[in-house]
Amino acid sequence: MGDDVNVLMSNSSKGTKDKHADDRALWLTLSNGNSLAFSSLYNRYANPLFNYGMHICYNRELVKDCIQELFAWLWKKRHELSPVDSVKYYLFKSFRNILIKAINQSKKFTEEPDEQHFLTQELSKEEEIIALDKENYHKEKVTKALGRISKRQREIVILRFFNEMSYAEISSLMGISTASAHNLLSKALQAMKVII
Amino acid sequence: MNYHHPDYSDFSIEDYLVDPFFKEWVLYSTPEHDEFWMRWIKAHPEKSALLEEARSLVLSLENSKEEMSPEELKDVWSLIQEDVNMPPKSLETYRSKKYRWAVAAGVSSVLAVATLVYLLLLPKEIEFVTGFGETLEITLPDSSTVKLNSNSKLTYLDNWEGQTAREIEIEGEAFFNVVHKVDHQPFRVLSSQNVTIEVLGTEFNVYNRAEETEVILNSGMVTLSFPVKEKEGKIVMNPGDLVKFKDNKFKRERVNTSLHTSWKDNVLNLEQTSLAEMVKMARDNYGVTIDVENKEALELTASGSMPLTDSDSFLRQIALIFNVELTKENNKYLIK
């Protein structure tokens, strides 16, 4: 009577740990080829990932394409999935890679390399992204506090507050030290408080 | 219910913003939340400015949230399905094939016969109904079992082979023990408030009466989806969870599941159960109306357990346990 599932769930405790245990149960069932577990993961994470993506690059279609790519890839390599501590972290990390690649590609196609391009070559990837869609973002969200803070500040706010990630996860996701993560977030909060 | 509050008095603004209980209060305030925070502010007046700041930050963050519409979610999902070449999921794909006109008469009569056979083989609807004071044990085609409580109805289409899911509709109350299938065919229970319960092998109780759906999970794993403000909400339930869906709102509680599911063993377990709840049970399960004259008596509670048989014994035991006088007037019962 569904023993496999019962065993998985029996050691789950309260609070956020529960969510991770659920996730891991879904992950394991997915790796056995269960399509219901697959759709549950999609239902659970499509919108959080979308929200995250939209705050990195304000381009609805591009972000949706990346979600599609992520999940298609996940299903194709379901049998190779090894257990992970945090399914959420794994998904966000993979999604971020896909998104950044897509942003860089769309840049190549849409923009002729001009002087400015060469000037900005020294910039980090994230800063490139900022330059790409800053204008769009501000047009749409100018009244909202998140629209007034920097791209990286926005990203950390999304990870921390909508997705309850730990500083360790955030720092490895964004490729910064935990100390700078703390610093970045407190600056973001400070800035948002002023705006509100 | 078992939620243990952290010490909010030395919280920084960031701590508030990640605290689930605080966020719930700001975003989906319930009386329970209000009561707690009102009391807390009274006890910590020096924190009220900080709290207010945290509150407006949470609101502003929520306001910046980007979401896909249900259509977009569905579209992206079907694109994913296309990408991974999953087998087509619905019967419609077989039927949507168009036959050409230029078919010889002989062939079309074969087709007609085939259609007839197909219609005869079409799954038929199966229905189980219980009257007041009756319960029924049902074994489903996949050998999952259901115990149907009084005054309830369960329907499904026979022949689940080759279907995308095993689907069941329920009105009233039922306890399910679902068998997990090797091919992972999902098991879905639909309630009348459009709440869908999706199951991966499990034991759970569904209560769906009078604009209210309540699901209690004993073991295993279940996801609930329900309509909220033109969107679809989803909850993954853990064993021991009770999720109530009423007036387009849901509420999750941690409960002692045996209190809610003991009826399946013809026993009613009470733990601080109020007279009001018993009155509701008498109506739901035995079709008996009880008027309570003194409204304060509704708040009386009792603990213990009692056997469940017929309505007479149920009423007698109520009178006994709650120490009230029960009289019959016309077709109604009255507690004074």
Description:
The complex is a heterodimer of chains A (196) and B (336). With 196 residues, chain A is an all-alpha fold. Chain A has two domains: 18-128, RNA polymerase sigma factor, region 2, helix turn helix motif (Rna Polymerase Sigma Factor, Chain: A), CATH 1.10.1740.10; 143-196, Winged helix-like DNA-binding domain superfamily/Winged helix DNA-binding domain (Arc Repressor Mutant, subunit A), CATH 1.10.10. The model of chain A is unreliable at 1-17, 111-124 and 137-143 (pLDDT under 50). In chain A, helix 3 runs antiparallel to helix 8, helix 4 packs across helix 5 and helix 5 (87-110) crosses helix 7. Chain A is built from ten helices and no strands. The longest helix of chain A has 24 residues, at 87-110. The radius of gyration of chain B is 26 Å and the shape is flat. The longest helix of chain B has 17 residues, at 105-121. In chain B, strands 1, 2, 3, 4, 5, 6, 7, 8, 9, 10 and 11 form an eleven-stranded mixed sheet that branches. With 336 residues, chain B is of the alpha+beta class. Chain B has four domains: 8-63; 75-121, no CATH class; 127-259, Jelly Rolls, CATH 2.60.120; 266-335, Phage tail protein beta-alpha-beta fold (3-Layer(bab) Sandwich). Classes of the chains: A mainly alpha (196), B alpha+beta (336). Chains A and B meet through helix 1, helix 2, helix 3, helix 4 and helix 8 of A and helix 1, helix 4, helix 5, strand 7 and strand 8 of B.
Structural features:
heterodimer; A: 196 residues; mainly alpha; Rna Polymerase Sigma Factor, Chain: A; Arc Repressor Mutant, subunit A; 2 domains; 10 helices; 76% helix; globular; disordered N terminus; B: 336 residues; alpha+beta; Jelly Rolls; eleven-stranded mixed sheet; three-stranded mixed sheet; 16 strands; 32% helix; 33% strand; flat
